[in-house]
Design brief:
208 residues; Arc Repressor Mutant, subunit A; Tetracycline Repressor, domain 2; 2 domains; 70% helix
Length: 208
Amino acid sequence: MTTQRKPRGPYRKGIQRREQILDAALEVFSRHGDRGSSLQEIADRVGLSLPGLLHYFGSREELLLAVIERRDVLDTESRTVKEEAEVRSPGEAVVRTVRHNMEQPGLVKLFVALSAAATEPAHHAHGFFTDRYRDLVLTIRKGLESGQENGEIRADANAEHMARLLLAISDGLQIQWLMDPSVDMAAIVETFNLLCQAAPDRESEPGR
């Protein structure tokens, strides 16, 4: 059996430095978003010059994408086993994610701006968002199909269509919420989830 060696020397220090920069960038962008944040502020937080920062991230755009990727990883890691077990449907999982995002308006601004720009095939983040949506649609579709099989999700609607609608609603609401923070994104997504539920079997209702 072979054991995996931990990175040592300059390579390991480079990884640690990159992690420090990402942590600082995540905090800065979570408060200010893309346009309200500067690379210099991030560099100052980790004791680097601006050229030193760009040694680890070749451009501002590369750092922005790394921050979004980091956010997704941290969101996944933050869920406890108990929380994962309590989630009964993909729609409920999306609601929890939306609630969490409402606590990080700067990162929501960053996500909206970057995902819109990434619709251009030549954009550096195009591949990331293409893969992200493909994987999310697949995961949610499978969860909905499972719900259709056990009678919890309506069977008269296409599972992939419902999956794409769920993502379109959750992501589209972010723009409305940034314009008007009184918009309760989580509650609206819950409304869509109710529409996806199977109608109760009247023959099995009490008294029938």
